[in-house]
Write a structure and sequence with these properties.
The chain has 70 residues and is α+β, with helices and mostly antiparallel strands. It is built from 3 helices and 2 strands, in the order H-E-E-H-H. Strands 1-2 form a two-stranded antiparallel sheet. The longest helix is centred in the last third of the chain and has 12 residues.
Length: 70
């Protein structure tokens, strides 16, 4: 699975048809991790609206970060 900070910092370039690549700056072990995903997950991710800043969960990131600060 993925940590919340990994999900919030996920970029479109990290998503491959069969896996999500979590880069070193996003995890505790300073290693690149590869998270397997199904074809259905890949299709669902690609139905999301793409934003100029390249983050997958752009609007959700702001909401969740504000929620955690409160």
């Amino acid at each position: 699975g993925m940590r919340i900070n990994e999900v919030l910092s996920l970029k479109w370039e990290d998503i491959m048809p069969d896996r999500i690549v979590v880069k070193a700056e996003n995890n505790k072990t300073d290693n690149t991790r590869q998270i397997p995903i199904s074809e259905e997950t890949y299709r669902l991710l690609n139905t999301l609206e793409k934003h100029d800043n390249n983050y997958v969960f752009c609007n959700y990131s702001i909401f969740l970060r504000n929620l955690m600060i409160s």
